[in-house]
Every structure is written in C-alpha cells, then in structure tokens.
C-alpha cells in the first residue's frame, strides 16, 4: 500500500508519530504501526486468562463470605449501598456517592434485558469488566468486604498487600483499555520505547504468580509478548 493511502486510512495525525519515531521512513513507519498491533494482540491471551481467573476467584470468595451465590445482585442493597460510600465534597459541599459497583451491576442487567436474556447472577458476573473487580481492592470497598478479596492471592510475597494488588491491577486495566482502543504502546515521547509495555507484562506475570505460580507455567506456550517486542525492536 502506498504511504499516502495508509496515512489517509489511519489518519495523518496518528501515523505521523510513527513516521517521526522511524526517522520519516515510510516503510518503517508502516512496519512499526503493524508491530504495535501485533504486540497488542500478543497481550490478549494473558489479559483474558487473568480476567477470568480474577473474576472466578473473587466470586468464589464472596459467595462464601456472604453465604450467597447471588451476592452480586443482593449486595446492591448491601455493601454496594453502604452509607460510608457517601461523603461530602470539601470543595463543593455537595454529597458525593461512590456507587460505581451498583451502577455496573445495573448496567449489566439492562444489557441482558435488551437482548431478552434471562438475568442470572452468573451472567451478571460474566458481564463485569476488569474495572469492577479491580475496584474491590480500592480501600473503601475492601474495608466493607473485610479484606476478603485478597484471599485469592495465596502466594503474594511477604510484605505485599491490598495496595500493591490494586496498583498492579489498575495499571493493567489502563493498559488493556489502551490496546482495546488501538492506542500506541511502543513510544516514550516520539521515540520507540517498550519500557512501559514490558513493565505491564511483568505486572501481569506477577499477579498470576501471586494467585498460583502454576498459572505462569500454564500460559507459557501462549505467551508471545517478549518475542513480539524483540522483533519490533529490530525495525
């Protein structure tokens, strides 16, 4: 494909950054753009596995904690509506309620209704995003849940805790959002740089190992991230 057509299809503003990073080489700019997509693609198996394991593990823990397999529905009027989640904004003097979890459950129910799908707790759980599960490690919800979510991390290193898990999951979630929106993950400024991308990869492996080191072994044959990054660095 001619470079002018490539730029037109993917927008001059977006492609220009790839051109600058490759010394205004049209062929290398296209190669880097495609390499960025390949790296993003290589993350999807790891992200998918992490999200499923996190979701299932937390669901098991909270089902036991509440003695209720339908906790995700019934707790809309429980800890998700706790008075401690409503605070007075010091700047505006207005009440501010953190009802993120409840809103996400309501949204899932609405999506299921629109498709004529029978609403079950299992389907609502499957609808939840990584952001929902990550938010359970925010201090306010974590306290209301008496710290139960951390139980899935049976191999977390000594000295690590809620904050470390929350920080790692938040970074991973933001990165996942970037690749889902086709944002570049191969730059630092206008230079080719994979430092942040490698840091996110390391965080994913860390989180999996904190749950169970066997998970790292399980994903080994699916893990093409570093190999794909190495190929991109040769451009």
Structure in a nutshell:
With 235 residues, this protein is mainly alpha-helical. The protein has twelve helices and four strands; from the N terminus they run ααααββαααααββααα.
The residue ranges in which pLDDT falls below 50 over 5 or more consecutive positions are: none
Helix- and strand-based class?
mainly alpha
Residues in helices, as a percent range = 55-70%
Q: In sequence order, what are the helices and strands, one letter per element?
A: HHHHEEHHHHHEEHHH
According to DSSP, the number of beta strands is 4
- Rg over CA atoms: 21 Å
Count of helix runs: 12
Number of domains: 1
**Strand composition percent:** under 5%
Biggest sheet strand order reads 1-2
Which features would summarize this protein structure in a list?
mainly alpha, 63% helix
List the helices and strands and how they pair.
Elements: H1 3-10, H2 12-21, H3 26-66, H4 71-74, E1 86-88, E2 95-97, H5 100-114, H6 121-127, H7 130-135, H8 139-144, H9 162-180, E3 187-188, E4 191-192, H10 195-211, H11 213-218, H12 225-232
Antiparallel strand pairs: 1-2, 3-4
Helix pairs in contact: 1-2, 2-3, 3-9, 3-10, 3-12, 5-6, 9-10
Descriptive account of the structure:
This protein is mainly alpha-helical and 235 residues long. It has one domain. Helix content is 63%, strand content 4%. It contains 12 helices and 4 strands; from the N terminus they run ααααββαααααββααα. It has helices at residues 3-10, 12-21, 26-66, 71-74, 100-114, 121-127, 130-135, 139-144, 162-180, 195-211, 213-218, 225-232; strands at residues 86-88, 95-97, 187-188, 191-192. The strands form 2 sheets. The protein has a two-stranded antiparallel ribbon. The chain has a two-stranded antiparallel ribbon with strand order 3-4. A hairpin with a 2-residue loop joins β3 (187-188) and β4.
């Amino acid at each position: 494909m001619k470079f002018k057509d490539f730029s037109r299809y993917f927008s001059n503003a977006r492609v220009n950054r790839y051109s600058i990073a490759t010394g205004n080489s049209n062929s290398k700019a296209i190669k880097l753009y495609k390499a960025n997509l390949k790296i993003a693609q290589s993350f999807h198996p790891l992200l998918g596995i992490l999200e499923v394991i996190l979701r299932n593990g937390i669901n098991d823990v909270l089902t036991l904690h509440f003695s209720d397999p339908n906790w995700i529905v019934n707790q809309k009027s429980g800890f998700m509506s706790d008075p401690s989640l409503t605070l007075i904004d010091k700047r505006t003097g207005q009440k501010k309620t953190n009802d993120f979890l409840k809103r996400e459950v309501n949204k899932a129910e609405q999506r299921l209704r629109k498709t004529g799908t029978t609403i079950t707790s299992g389907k609502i759980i499957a609808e939840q995003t990584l952001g929902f599960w990550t938010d359970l490690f925010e201090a306010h919800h974590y306290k209301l849940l008496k710290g139960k979510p951390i139980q899935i991390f049976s191999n977390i290193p000594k000295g690590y805790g809620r904050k470390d898990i929350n920080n790692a999951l938040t970074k991973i979630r933001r990165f996942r959002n970037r690749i889902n929106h086709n944002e570049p993950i191969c730059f630092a400024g206008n230079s080719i740089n994979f430092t942040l991308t490698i840091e996110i990869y390391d965080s994913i492996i860390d989180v999996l190992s904190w749950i169970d080191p066997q998970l790292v072994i399980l994903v080994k044959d699916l893990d093409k991230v570093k190999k794909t990054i190495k190929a991109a660095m040769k451009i």
